[in-house]
């Protein structure tokens, strides 16, 4: 790929990524799917650190959807361990990089040790300000909207506006997504951040997530910088 120059004055504030293709990457090499997830975690580390370096303010990744529970138990068990391994192995970089960590999604179904790990890193990084790294874990966009509606009903609130409704989403205080990236050639949003994607720019690439590197990321960011965002208006 020819190198392209990144204009850091035109960066999106919030990038979201559907990290697709770990299993395909492993299958092409005759390896178990978990090897693909492990390699995918390394790709994520590189993207998180580079995002922080260049000035991305919010980075959200889809780590485990509400539909992923239907996968084989061995794979699900590994995917439940992987966030803990990722946070612990990259702890120094997270703290040194002034990165705030958040997790969105329904936590009650997660293993207790994972819930504790999430709370630990959320609490310890709450005052970090350079970038917010958000992991969507046991998350579904429809479920997020439904749980927000149920909480509003429980509180007896019958009239709301967009701003009020957002206060009840898992993504409270997180800005709308500017750029959504999906790897592995799939061109759908798969129930991810439905409310926050209303005016997002979409970028799809055939590159498998474990192979998605800095150059691929810069290519996506450069394409975003050249798009004309109108938000329903006319320029």
What does the model show?
The chain is an alpha/beta fold and 235 residues long. The protein has one domain: Decaprenyl diphosphate synthase-like (Undecaprenyl pyrophosphate synthetase), CATH 3.40.1180. Helix content is 41%, strand content 15%. The protein is built from 8 helices and 6 strands, in the order E-H-H-E-H-H-E-H-E-H-H-E-E-H. Helix 2 packs parallel to helix 3 and helix 3 packs parallel to helix 5. The mean pLDDT is 95.
Produce a short descriptive summary:
By secondary structure, this protein is an alpha/beta fold.
Write the layout of secondary structure elements.
Elements: E1 14-18, H1 22-28, H2 33-54, E2 58-65, H3 73-89, H4 91-96, E3 99-104, H5 112-124, E4 131-139, H6 141-154, H7 162-166, E5 179-182, E6 201-204, H8 214-225
Parallel strand pairs: 1-2, 1-5, 2-4, 3-4, 5-6
Helix pairs in contact: 1-2, 2-3, 3-5
């Amino acid at each position: 790929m020819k190198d392209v120059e990144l204009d850091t004055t035109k960066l999106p504030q919030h990038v979201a990524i559907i990290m697709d293709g770990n299993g395909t990457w492993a299958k092409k090499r005759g390896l178990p799917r978990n090897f693909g997830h492990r390699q995918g975690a390394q790709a994520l580390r590189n993207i998180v650190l580079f995002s922080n370096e260049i000035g991305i303010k919010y980075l959200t990744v889809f780590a485990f959807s509400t539909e992923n529970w239907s996968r084989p138990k061995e794979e699900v068990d590994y995917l439940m361990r992987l966030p803990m391994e990722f946070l612990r192995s990259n702890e120094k970089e997270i703290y040194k990089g002034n990165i705030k960590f958040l997790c969105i999604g329904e936590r009650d179904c997660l293993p207790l040790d994972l819930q504790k790990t999430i709370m630990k890193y959320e609490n310890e990084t709450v005052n970090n300000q350079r970038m917010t790294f958000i992991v969507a874990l046991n998350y579904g966009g429809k479920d997020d909207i439904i749980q927000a509606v149920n909480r509003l009903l429980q509180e007896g609130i019958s009239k709301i506006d967009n701003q009020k409704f957002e206060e009840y989403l898992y993504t409270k205080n997180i800005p709308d997504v500017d750029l959504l990236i999906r790897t592995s050639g799939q061109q759908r949003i798969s129930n991810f951040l439905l409310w926050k994607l209303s005016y997002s720019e979409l970028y799809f690439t055939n590159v498998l997530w474990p192979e998605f590197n800095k150059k691929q990321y810069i290519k996506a960011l450069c394409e975003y910088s050249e798009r004309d965002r109108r938000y329903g208006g006319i320029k």
